[in-house]
DNA sequence: ATGTCTTTGTGAACGCGTGCACAAAGATGG
DNA sequence: CCATCTTTGTGCACGCGTTCACAAAGACAT
C-alpha cells in the first residue's frame, strides 16, 4: 500500500534502500569531522575511506539522494551535511524518552551526544518509586505511572527501552498505546508491535557471541572438534554451566543473552 | 592508509553463512527460555515464533549445523542448546577486557550476564590515573600502562572498547599488538585493523538516526518538502545547531554520532 | 575555445539471503 | 505391518545489495 510511484520523474524517488539509510549516519559523521576541519570538498574516494566503505557504494548511495556532487571535483562538504541531515530528519528536534534507568539507562542519559544530533531527552522513566524525583544527568526521574502523560505532553514519538527483559513488552505496549511509533530496544526480548511501529534492537550479548564464533574458528577447532555429545535429552547439556540463579530475562538490559 | 578490511573473506571452512551466525544467539536465547520451562521439544514453527523469524529460515539455518531435528516431532531443546552453544564457542571460557570505564564501561562491567554466557570480565582498564585501583562491579580498575601485560597474562583475545572516539584507534592498536583478535567497538570511529582481526560495532546514535528517518517518513514530508537550501558553502548548514563545545569524537562512547 | 584530466553517476553482472513449496522421514494409531 | 499424519530438510526462484567498469560531465590549463 502507498508504494505507488510518484508521477515525478525526478531522480529523487522515495525509494531509498534500507541499506543506504543505515549508512547515511556513517557518512554524516565523517562529513561533520571534515566540516570541523574546514575542508570544503571531498571526493567519493576520500569520504569512502573515512567512512570505511567502498567508494562505488558511496556514490550509489548518494545517487539515491540526488546528484549533489560535481564531476571532477567531488562533493561540497557543508552542502552534503545539510542534505543528509535533512534526509535523516535531523534538522528537527526529536524528543526522546528513556524507560528503565538502570546502569545502561543512566549511561544513555548522561551521554551528551543526544542534544547535538537533534535528539533531546524529554524524560527519564523508571518503575522504581525510590528513583522518582532523583536526578540523573540533571533530569529528574519520573515514575512509570505518568508514562502516558509524559509521552503526550512532550509529543514524544521515539522511545528507548532499557528495562529488564521481563518488563520490556509491557513498557513497549504502553509506549505504543501512548503514541510512540519508533522504539530502540535494549532489552533481550523480541518485541511484538503493531504495523506502523518501527523497532530497532541493540544487543551486546549477540555481538559478543558472534565474535566468539569467529574467535573459535580462528583458534582452529582441532582441540574441541568432534567432542563428546551429551546424552541426547539429559539435563542441562552444557553451555549454561553456572549462574542459573535467575531467569535470563531478569538482567537490566545492556547485555541481553 | 592500511584500511584493514574488516570483512571476512568468506570463512568457507564450515561454510555457515554470516547471516545465520548472527541469528544463532537469538535461537539460543529462545531455547534457553524453553529449557528453563522444562519444555522437551519444539517445532521449527514454535521456535521461529519465539525468536521472531520465519520458520523456513530457521530450518535452513539449522540445516547448516547438521540434521538435529526429528521429522514429525521437532527439535530436542537441550540437545539444540548444546549444539548451538558449541558452534558459537560458548562452551569455553572467554576472558574479556573492557577499556574505558566511563558510564558505559561501568554499565557493561556491572552487567551480570557476562559470566552466564561463557564470557568473563578479566579486567577493567582506564587511562585516568584517578580511576586506578577503584573497584567497579567488584573489579579494580587498572591503568592503561599495564594493558599489554593484562592481555598477555590472562590470555585475552576479545576486547571491548568503550573509550572516547579520540582514543579508540590507539587503544585498538595496542590491543591488537598485544594479541587481541576480536574487538567490540562502542566508540564512534571507524577502526582500522590488520587482516585476521574482527571488529564489530555497536552504535546507538546510528540506530536513533535510522529511527528518525523512518519517523520523518511516517509523519509525511509535506511540511518540510522543497525547503530552502542554505547557501551552498555557508557555515554549519544546520544539523549541529548547538553543543559544539567539543569535537564530536570527545564523547564517551555510548552515543556515537 | 579546445584539449586534457579528474571524478561523478549508473548500467549491468554477480552473489547472498529469503521465502515458497514439496518430497522424504519418521512417529503414531489401527 | 500398513496407513496416515506431522514436521523436517532443501531445491528453486526471486529480490536486494554490492561491485565493476565506463561514458558523461565538468574543471582547469593553455
UniProtKB/TrEMBL annotation, chains A, B:
CoA-binding domain span: 89-190
Positions that bind NAD(+): 100-105
Residue ranges crossing the lipid bilayer per the database entry: none
Region (Disordered) location: 219-257
SMART domains the record matches: CoA_binding
One Pfam family, short name: CoA_binding
Biased composition (Low complexity): 226-250
Gene Ontology MF term list: DNA binding; DNA-binding transcription factor activity
Ranges annotated as DNA-binding: 26-65
Single biological process term from Gene Ontology: response to redox state
Main location: cytoplasm
InterPro entries noted in UniProt: CoA-bd, NAD(P)-bd_dom_sf, Rex_actinobacterial-type, Rex_DNA-bd_C_dom, Tscrpt_rep_Rex, WH-like_DNA-bd_sf, WH_DNA-bd_sf
Any one cellular-component term (Gene Ontology): cytoplasm
Superkingdom of the source species: Bacteria
Keyword terms of this UniProt record: Cytoplasm, DNA-binding, NAD, Repressor, Transcription, Transcription regulation
Transcription listed as a keyword: yes
The keyword Cell wall biogenesis/degradation appears for this protein: no
Subcellular location per the Swiss-Prot or TrEMBL entry: Cytoplasm
Family of this protein: Belongs to the transcriptional regulatory Rex family.
Function summary: Modulates transcription in response to changes in cellular NADH/NAD(+) redox state.
Oligomer and partners: Homodimer.
Protein name: Redox-sensing transcriptional repressor Rex
